[in-house]
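INTERNAL AUDIT FORM
Audit reference: QA-55
Scope: verify that the stored structure record matches its stored sequence.
Auditor: D.O.
Record contents follow.
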Amino acid sequence: MERFFECATAAGVLLPEGPIIAKHQVQVFLATRRKAQMMPGIAAYDGVWPFDDPLFDAVSDFLKKL
């Protein structure tokens, strides 16, 4: 994915910074899925995000405390 953004930048595409670039990165990832134009919430429902991975433990802990 990083190479995609490096290529886009080299081609003169002005990419946003901060949280907005993260949204673009998610869309690039979702574009590799079988379903076209999947929204992040639908992707979560369809099991695209591996929420059982330890990477998501901090998010899970935060949500449990709400």
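Auditor finding: record pair retrieved intact. Residues 2-65 form one domain.
Action required: none
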